[in-house]
Design brief:
With 522 residues, the chain is α+β, with helices and mostly antiparallel strands. It is built from 15 helices and 25 strands. It has helices at 70-88, 129-147, 155-165, 167-172, 179-188, 217-223, 245-251, 265-272, 327-338, 345-351, 392-417, 436-446, 458-470, 477-484, 498-520; strands at residues 14-16, 19-22, 26-32, 36-43, 48-55, 67-68, 95-102, 108-110, 120-121, 175-177, 196-198, 208-209, 214-215, 232-234, 239-242, 258-260, 280-285, 289-292, 308-311, 318-324, 363-365, 382-384, 425-429, 450-455, 486-491. Helix 2 crosses helix 3 (155-165). It is globular, with a radius of gyration of 22 Å.
Length: 522
């Protein structure tokens, strides 16, 4: 049984200084993302009453090192909650609960008191590359078959890096958690004995049996990882505690406000897109470019080693997925570093709209930080086939197409695993949803319908949905998710471009293979 909060005032309106302001049962969704913390306050009908953002402060002291201070992340959460309450003029007593979601593949080491003893080792941090290779060599296929994901820049190799490269810090670690869990623990004043990880992260864990929802003794033994340093596995809708008196004073919430476990930010985004039925795919067009399907089957990709397979927030459902670790980040890099911020992304999209020369379009390899799906950490980005005729618009269109071509390779890998899988449509969320050029390129290269969302709050909305379900406000998570979203503009594939798309996909796949062979050559 899911825990329910104490009885709530069910009057239709709450008041602030005697003024009616909003429906009574409110839900806070918090996303600790790569770019920063975004907090949103929702009414139970899905109306967003307030939204606040606080930019992250990544620290890059050396090449490949990307860290954040967990206490800075906590401050950003407290600040954005306080600002949402002020912006909406909401009565804190009307907040039925909150859930926090966040970056998925990084880790924070916490001490016995629940406080961080390491910085947040970001998913963008590539220091653990040598341990990715060691895990793959020792038990890569076993890790993939059990967790659903091959070793990459995620929890397993990162924990090994701390164990072997920072042994003194590792000795102080009582549990490794992710930012969302860490902040939830701090809000509730939980110590390491109550550390947790929800099951949507397990494919990144390196040491879990995902099907069984348990830590795997054999994998822990193989890599000499102490199971005592691994947190309890919980469901995303589990109640993990209540906001402490101290934290309530800091953020403006009522003490004892229920805190629900939450999930990974991409899993929350899938929920917020209504990916609750077979065949509904999601394109998270953000800092990373994530492509995911929805299925009833757990399908470790032992054939192409391209896809991961993570749990949906909905019990019994799975999301085979793959991603480019800097799809959207590449566009900002081009705009700022190459063009000197002379154009906006919208202006660049307009310059890239001409599709009449796609047969001779240069190829762009989007892996400026290494390829994740599959794990080719040494691969780097490039344009191939540039000529003096290339314009800014041409180069930008090639960058957009690079992600679409990657998605086409992910689609191929999925069909190898699930030959009967029918891709019904791809729903786009994130900043890239606003780009008609990009969406049409994806529709043409995938030869599938691509649909934007006019109402989709992304990961914060998914978190709020979980908060409502975990506190008993909603009886059915899948149904309320469908009610909260609104589908937007649809982009239909052009059948006349099917042959060109197939040719481009084949050429791109061959290019990647050759570049990878060159990268790993002695």
């Amino acid at each position: 049984m899911r825990p329910r909060p104490a009885a709530l005032n069910r009057a239709s309106l709450s008041t602030f200084d005697g003024v009616p302001v909003c429906p009574v049962r409110l839900l806070l969704g918090i996303d600790i993302g790569t770019q920063g913390t975004k907090t949103a306050l929702y009414a139970e009908d899905g109306a967003c009453l307030a939204e606040r953002f606080c930019a992250s402060q990544p620290h890059r002291p050396a090449s490949g090192v990307v860290e954040e201070n967990p206490e800075t992340q906590l401050t950003s959460v407290l600040q954005t909650i306080r600002e949402c309450l002020a912006q909406s003029r909401a009565d804190p007593a009307a907040v039925a609960g909150l859930a926090i979601v966040g970056q998925m593949a990084g880790v924070i080491g916490i001490g016995a008191d629940g406080r961080a003893v390491t910085p947040y080792d970001s998913w963008l941090d590539t220091r653990c590359g040598a341990y990715v290779e060691k895990m793959r060599a020792l038990a890569g296929d076993e890790v993939l078959a059990k967790t659903g994901n091959a070793p990459s820049f995620n929890h397993g190799p990162k924990k090994l890096w701390w164990k072997h490269e920072r042994p003194a810090d590792y000795a102080r670690v009582r549990a490794f958690v992710q930012p969302a869990a860490y902040i939830a623990m701090r809000l509730c004043n939980l110590d390491a004995a109550r550390a947790f990880i929800d099951y949507t992260y397990l494919h990144f864990s390196g040491f879990a049996d995902n099907r069984r929802l348990a830590w795997d003794e054999g994998l822990c033994r193989s890599f000499e990882i102490d199971p005592a340093k691994l947190p309890a596995i919980v469901a995303p809708h589990s109640m993990v505690g209540h906001v402490s008196d101290l934290m309530a004073r800091e953020c403006g919430l009522r003490a004892d406000t229920p805190v629900v476990a939450g999930c990974g930010d991409t899993a929350a985004s899938f929920l917020a897109c209504g990916a609750t039925d077979e065949g509904v795919c999601v394109d998270v067009a953000g800092t990373a470019s994530v492509f995911a399907a929805t299925t009833r089957k757990f399908v470790p990709d032992t054939k192409s080693h391209t896809l991961g397979c993570g749990r949906s927030v909905l019990a019994g459902w799975w999301h085979p997925y793959a991603y480019v670790n800097g799809g959207g980040q590449n566009l900002e890099w081009f705009r700022r570093a190459i063009l000197g911020e002379q154009r906006t992304l919208d202006e660049l999209g307009a310059e890239a709209s001409d599709d009449s020369h796609d047969e001779g379009l240069p190829f762009f390899v989007p892996h400026l930080g290494g390829r994740v799906s599959p794990a080719w950490p040494g691969l780097r980005g490039s344009w191939v086939g540039l000529s003096w005729d290339a314009s800014v618009g041409t180069m930008f269109r090639a960058m957009l197409e690079g992600v679409a071509l990657e998605y086409a390779l992910y689609q191929r890998a999925l069909r190898l695993l699930l030959p009967r899988f029918e891709l019904r449509e791809v729903r786009v969320t994130g900043g890239g949803e606003r780009s008609p050029v990009w969406n049409q390129l994806k529709a043409d290269r995938l030869q599938a319908r691509v649909v934007g969302l006019t109402r989709c709050g992304g990961a914060p909305m998914g978190a709020a949905l979980l908060a409502g379900y975990g506190t008993g406000v909603f009886p059915d998570l899948a149904e309320v998710a469908k009610k909260w979203i609104e589908l937007g503009r649809a982009f239909e594939p052009d059948p006349a471009k099917a042959a060109l798309s197939e040719h481009r996909i084949q050429r791109y796949a061959a290019l990647l293979d050759k570049l990878h062979a060159w990268t790993v050559a002695p």
